[in-house]
Protein backbone atom coordinates (compact mmCIF):
# COMPACT_ATOMS: atom_id res chain seq x y z
CA UNK A 1 0.00 0.00 0.00
CA UNK A 2 1.50 3.34 -1.02
CA UNK A 3 1.55 6.56 0.98
CA UNK A 4 -1.41 8.06 -0.80
CA UNK A 5 -3.66 5.05 -0.08
CA UNK A 6 -2.69 5.24 3.61
CA UNK A 7 -3.76 8.83 3.71
CA UNK A 8 -7.10 7.86 2.22
CA UNK A 9 -7.54 5.00 4.68
CA UNK A 10 -6.99 7.14 7.79
CA UNK A 11 -8.51 10.57 7.13
CA UNK A 12 -8.26 13.33 9.74
CA UNK A 13 -11.34 14.04 11.88
CA UNK A 14 -13.29 17.27 11.77
CA UNK A 15 -11.54 20.09 13.66
CA UNK A 16 -8.12 18.43 13.53
CA UNK A 17 -5.20 19.66 11.55
CA UNK A 18 -2.50 17.56 9.96
CA UNK A 19 1.04 18.79 10.68
CA UNK A 20 4.16 17.45 9.08
CA UNK A 21 7.34 18.14 10.95
CA UNK A 22 10.74 17.58 9.49
CA UNK A 23 13.36 16.26 11.85
CA UNK A 24 16.25 16.21 9.50
CA UNK A 25 19.83 16.63 10.62
CA UNK A 26 19.69 20.40 10.04
CA UNK A 27 16.30 21.05 11.73
CA UNK A 28 15.74 22.18 15.34
CA UNK A 29 13.17 20.66 17.71
CA UNK A 30 10.10 22.82 18.45
CA UNK A 31 10.64 25.46 21.14
CA UNK A 32 9.13 24.77 24.56
CA UNK A 33 10.42 27.93 26.33
CA UNK A 34 8.15 30.05 28.55
CA UNK A 35 8.39 32.93 26.09
CA UNK A 36 6.57 30.86 23.51
CA UNK A 37 3.53 30.38 25.78
CA UNK A 38 0.60 32.80 25.75
CA UNK A 39 -0.78 33.64 29.23
CA UNK A 40 -4.23 35.20 29.30
CA UNK A 41 -4.33 37.79 32.10
CA UNK A 42 -7.33 39.92 33.04
CA UNK A 43 -7.08 43.48 31.69
CA UNK A 44 -5.62 46.06 34.06
CA UNK A 45 -8.11 48.42 35.68
CA UNK A 46 -8.12 51.92 34.25
CA UNK A 47 -5.99 54.43 36.08
CA UNK A 48 -8.94 56.71 36.76
CA UNK A 49 -10.87 53.90 38.46
CA UNK A 50 -8.01 52.33 40.36
CA UNK A 51 -8.12 52.79 44.11
CA UNK A 52 -5.10 54.03 46.01
CA UNK A 53 -4.80 53.38 49.74
CA UNK A 54 -2.69 55.86 51.67
CA UNK A 55 -1.48 55.18 55.19
CA UNK A 56 -1.03 58.66 56.59
CA UNK A 57 0.32 58.55 60.12
CA UNK A 58 -1.59 55.30 60.79
CA UNK A 59 -4.88 56.49 59.30
CA UNK A 60 -5.99 55.09 55.94
CA UNK A 61 -7.37 57.19 53.09
CA UNK A 62 -8.81 55.70 49.89
CA UNK A 63 -8.54 57.82 46.76
CA UNK A 64 -7.65 57.61 43.06
CA UNK A 65 -4.59 58.53 40.96
CA UNK A 66 -6.54 61.31 39.24
CA UNK A 67 -7.26 62.97 42.59
CA UNK A 68 -3.56 62.90 43.45
CA UNK A 69 -2.34 64.01 40.02
CA UNK A 70 -1.89 67.63 41.11
CA UNK A 71 0.75 66.69 43.69
CA UNK A 72 4.38 66.29 42.68
CA UNK A 73 4.93 64.16 45.77
CA UNK A 74 2.28 61.62 44.80
CA UNK A 75 3.41 61.53 41.19
CA UNK A 76 6.70 60.18 42.48
CA UNK A 77 5.00 58.00 45.07
CA UNK A 78 2.89 56.20 42.49
CA UNK A 79 5.80 55.58 40.15
CA UNK A 80 7.55 52.21 40.01
CA UNK A 81 10.34 53.43 42.28
CA UNK A 82 8.06 53.34 45.30
CA UNK A 83 6.84 50.13 46.85
CA UNK A 84 3.69 49.51 48.82
CA UNK A 85 3.49 48.08 52.31
CA UNK A 86 2.41 44.52 53.01
CA UNK A 87 -1.26 45.53 53.01
CA UNK A 88 -0.93 47.28 49.63
CA UNK A 89 -1.00 50.82 51.01
CA UNK A 90 1.46 53.65 50.46
CA UNK A 91 2.92 55.14 53.63
CA UNK A 92 2.92 58.93 53.95
CA UNK A 93 4.67 60.48 56.92
CA UNK A 94 2.28 63.36 57.63
CA UNK A 95 -0.33 64.48 60.15
CA UNK A 96 -3.60 62.75 59.19
CA UNK A 97 -5.73 65.59 60.59
CA UNK A 98 -4.02 68.09 58.30
CA UNK A 99 -3.85 65.69 55.37
CA UNK A 100 -7.64 65.41 55.44
CA UNK A 101 -7.87 69.07 54.41
CA UNK A 102 -5.17 68.62 51.76
CA UNK A 103 -7.08 65.72 50.18
CA UNK A 104 -10.40 67.57 50.28
CA UNK A 105 -8.99 70.29 48.05
CA UNK A 106 -8.31 68.20 44.88
CA UNK A 107 -11.44 66.15 45.45
CA UNK A 108 -13.95 69.01 45.58
CA UNK A 109 -11.90 72.20 45.06
CA UNK A 110 -12.81 73.10 48.63
CA UNK A 111 -10.28 75.41 50.22
CA UNK A 112 -9.71 75.20 53.98
CA UNK A 113 -11.33 77.90 56.05
CA UNK A 114 -10.52 77.88 59.77
CA UNK A 115 -12.68 80.73 60.97
CA UNK A 116 -14.61 81.23 64.18
CA UNK A 117 -16.88 84.24 64.64
CA UNK A 118 -15.66 84.91 68.16
CA UNK A 119 -11.97 84.10 67.63
CA UNK A 120 -11.40 84.97 63.98
CA UNK A 121 -9.06 83.05 61.70
CA UNK A 122 -6.91 80.25 63.13
CA UNK A 123 -3.57 81.40 61.76
CA UNK A 124 -1.71 78.51 63.39
CA UNK A 125 -3.78 75.97 61.42
CA UNK A 126 -3.13 77.81 58.17
CA UNK A 127 0.62 77.82 58.79
CA UNK A 128 0.69 74.13 59.72
CA UNK A 129 -1.36 73.23 56.65
CA UNK A 130 0.95 75.29 54.45
CA UNK A 131 3.90 73.18 55.58
CA UNK A 132 2.07 69.95 54.70
CA UNK A 133 0.90 71.30 51.33
CA UNK A 134 4.43 72.41 50.54
CA UNK A 135 5.81 68.97 51.54
CA UNK A 136 3.29 67.23 49.26
CA UNK A 137 3.73 69.70 46.40
CA UNK A 138 0.08 70.80 46.01
CA UNK A 139 0.79 74.05 44.19
CA UNK A 140 -2.71 75.58 44.03
CA UNK A 141 -3.27 75.00 47.75
CA UNK A 142 0.18 76.42 48.49
CA UNK A 143 -0.74 79.61 46.64
CA UNK A 144 -4.03 79.95 48.51
CA UNK A 145 -2.31 79.61 51.90
CA UNK A 146 0.87 81.53 51.12
CA UNK A 147 -1.00 84.52 49.62
CA UNK A 148 -3.52 84.43 52.51
CA UNK A 149 -6.60 84.32 50.33
CA UNK A 150 -8.60 83.23 53.36
CA UNK A 151 -8.61 86.80 54.63
CA UNK A 152 -10.48 87.85 51.49
CA UNK A 153 -12.83 84.88 51.60
CA UNK A 154 -14.51 86.08 54.80
CA UNK A 155 -15.86 89.60 55.19
CA UNK A 156 -17.76 91.22 58.05
CA UNK A 157 -20.24 94.07 57.86
CA UNK A 158 -20.83 96.01 61.08
CA UNK A 159 -23.72 98.45 61.53
CA UNK A 160 -24.57 100.49 64.61
CA UNK A 161 -27.73 102.36 65.54
CA UNK A 162 -28.97 104.19 68.58
CA UNK A 163 -31.92 102.58 70.32
CA UNK A 164 -34.47 104.68 72.17
CA UNK A 165 -35.69 102.09 74.65
CA UNK A 166 -33.44 100.29 77.14
CA UNK A 167 -35.22 96.99 76.78
CA UNK A 168 -34.00 93.91 74.99
CA UNK A 169 -36.25 92.44 72.35
CA UNK A 170 -36.60 88.97 70.87
CA UNK A 171 -35.22 88.82 67.35
CA UNK A 172 -34.99 86.11 64.74
CA UNK A 173 -31.84 86.22 62.65
CA UNK A 174 -29.65 84.05 60.47
CA UNK A 175 -26.70 82.19 61.94
CA UNK A 176 -24.22 84.51 60.23
CA UNK A 177 -25.64 87.50 62.13
CA UNK A 178 -24.77 88.53 65.66
CA UNK A 179 -26.41 91.40 67.55
CA UNK A 180 -25.03 93.07 70.66
CA UNK A 181 -26.33 95.93 72.80
CA UNK A 182 -23.99 98.33 74.53
CA UNK A 183 -24.52 101.44 76.59
CA UNK A 184 -22.65 104.59 75.71
CA UNK A 185 -22.42 108.08 77.13
CA UNK A 186 -22.60 111.28 75.15
CA UNK A 187 -23.05 115.01 75.75
CA UNK A 188 -26.01 116.90 74.37
CA UNK A 189 -28.05 120.06 74.98
CA UNK A 190 -30.88 119.41 77.42
CA UNK A 191 -33.75 121.79 78.16
CA UNK A 192 -33.96 122.78 81.83
CA UNK A 193 -37.23 124.03 83.31
CA UNK A 194 -36.74 127.47 84.88
CA UNK A 195 -38.71 126.36 87.90
CA UNK A 196 -36.75 123.09 88.16
CA UNK A 197 -39.77 120.83 87.64
CA UNK A 198 -38.50 117.39 86.77
CA UNK A 199 -41.34 116.39 84.45
CA UNK A 200 -40.66 119.54 82.40
CA UNK A 201 -37.04 118.62 81.82
CA UNK A 202 -36.15 118.05 78.13
CA UNK A 203 -39.64 119.20 77.12
CA UNK A 204 -40.09 122.97 76.73
CA UNK A 205 -43.75 122.48 75.70
CA UNK A 206 -44.52 121.17 79.18
CA UNK A 207 -43.75 124.48 80.80
CA UNK A 208 -46.70 126.81 81.47
CA UNK A 209 -47.01 130.55 81.97
CA UNK A 210 -45.37 130.48 85.37
CA UNK A 211 -42.35 128.78 83.87
CA UNK A 212 -42.27 131.28 81.04
CA UNK A 213 -42.31 134.17 83.49
CA UNK A 214 -39.39 132.68 85.29
CA UNK A 215 -37.62 132.06 81.98
CA UNK A 216 -37.19 135.81 81.54
CA UNK A 217 -34.97 135.74 84.56
CA UNK A 218 -33.42 132.43 83.50
CA UNK A 219 -30.25 132.98 81.57
CA UNK A 220 -29.67 129.48 80.07
CA UNK A 221 -32.73 127.42 79.25
CA UNK A 222 -30.44 124.68 77.86
CA UNK A 223 -27.34 123.20 79.35
CA UNK A 224 -24.87 120.45 78.41
CA UNK A 225 -25.55 117.20 80.14
CA UNK A 226 -24.05 113.72 79.95
CA UNK A 227 -26.74 111.30 78.84
CA UNK A 228 -26.68 107.56 78.43
CA UNK A 229 -27.88 105.86 75.29
CA UNK A 230 -28.24 102.28 74.11
CA UNK A 231 -26.42 101.24 70.95
CA UNK A 232 -27.36 98.22 68.86
CA UNK A 233 -24.36 96.64 67.11
CA UNK A 234 -25.08 94.21 64.29
CA UNK A 235 -22.32 92.05 62.79
CA UNK A 236 -22.87 90.02 59.62
CA UNK A 237 -20.33 87.51 58.31
CA UNK A 238 -20.18 86.65 54.60
CA UNK A 239 -18.14 84.22 52.50
CA UNK A 240 -17.22 86.13 49.38
CA UNK A 241 -18.58 84.46 46.25
CA UNK A 242 -16.66 86.92 44.06
CA UNK A 243 -13.31 85.78 45.44
CA UNK A 244 -14.31 82.14 44.99
CA UNK A 245 -15.25 82.73 41.34
CA UNK A 246 -12.03 84.65 40.73
CA UNK A 247 -9.94 81.77 42.06
CA UNK A 248 -11.83 78.90 40.39
CA UNK A 249 -14.20 80.35 37.82
CA UNK A 250 -11.82 80.00 34.90
CA UNK A 251 -10.76 76.42 35.71
Explained architecture:
- The structure is a single chain.
- The chain has 251 residues and is an alpha+beta fold.
- It is 27% helix and 24% strand.
- It contains eight helices and eight strands.
- It has helices at residues 3-9, 72-77, 96-108, 123-136, 139-146, 150-153, 209-217, 241-248; strands at 52-56, 59-63, 90-92, 115-116, 120-121, 154-163, 177-191, 222-239.
- The strands form three sheets. A three-stranded mixed beta sheet has the order 2-1-3, with no helix packed on it. The protein has a three-stranded antiparallel beta sheet with strand order 6-8-7. Strands 4-5 form a two-stranded antiparallel sheet.
- A hairpin with a 3-residue loop joins β4 and β5 (120-121).
- The two termini are 85 Å apart.
- The model is unreliable at 1-25 and 27-46 (pLDDT under 50).
